[in-house]
Amino acid sequence: MANENRKQKSDRIAIDSASSRRAFVRKMGGTLAATAIVSSGAGAVSAAETRRSYTIREGTEDETRVYVIDAGEPGPTAVVVGGIHGNEESGYLAADDVATWSIDKGKLVVIPRSNPVAIDRGTYVNDNGNLNRKFPPGKEPTTALARALWNAIDSHNPNTVLNLHASQGIYREDDGPDGSGQAIYPTYSEGAGEDAVMTARYMNRYHVPDSYPEYLAFKRGNTIDADRPLLIHKVAGDMRIRGYILEVTTYDTELDTRVRWHLNMVRHLLRRNGIDRTYD
Ligand SMILES: [Zn+2]
Question: Would you state the pLDDT for residue 211?
């Protein structure tokens, strides 16, 4: 109930902001307002960005923040989720940063630390096991935290969902341990596969120096097809939208490099989904 009240309050803040913007346009008069709309299209007038955040699972050990950045210009909605596995620091550190970004249009929803207990302990799992096995496609998520996360994501009606992970191994390489690192795994929705290919290519061209070993090159991972109880599998099956698992490897890499890789993949994938990061 507390969450429900909070949500209504937050929504009201957003509405207030929108109506004061309308009042502002009205005050400017018809001709000026029309000019403003044209200028806005050319980027001369900055949009009325709103930022808010709220807590899910409040009062429990799982309580965590959801950040909502609304550009104030119509556009797609993207969700970025970090920290499902508490020992994969690069994911939640990158997502903490993404929660401070500004964007040119649409809405960016960030849940940086989706598994706070596991993050606190620095462990892969929490007391209920692997959080990323609690999202069966076509069914209710199987823990309270998974349900709260899914409801938070679903309530924003996203066009795309990105989930950040790190692996101790390497995907499809003879060198290093086996694992899922250095790959972008797309859902089976149209366009996601190409996004993964193009993002891997972009990363290798601009963010993996030639001096790095070949096995650190990013790849397109296998297609996420809703046949396993992972968050992005549920996104694929239930939402039928473009989604991605972004995996870096901890093998032979530094934490700050992994964070930077995540940030660049997120920025590039948002761009491919119609949202540009903006800078002051
Ligand atoms: Zn993971």
Answer: 95
Phi (first) and psi of residue 161, to 5 degrees = -135, 130
Distance from residue 54's CA to the centre of ligand 1 (Å):
24
Global pTM? 0.83
- 75 alpha carbon – ligand 1 mean position (Å): 29
Residues 45 and 37: beta-carbon distance below 8 Å: no
Cα(185)–Cα(196) distance, rounded to whole angstroms?
7
Q: How many Å lie between the centroid of ligand 1 and the Cα of residue 37?
A: 44
| Residues in the chain where the model's pLDDT stays below 70 | 1-47
Looking up tokens 């969902």 gives 161
Strand blocks (E) in the chain: 50-56, 64-70, 77-81, 102-103, 107-111, 160-167, 183-186, 219-220, 242-249, 277-278
Q: Is 226 helix (H, G, I), strand (E, B) or coil?
A: coil
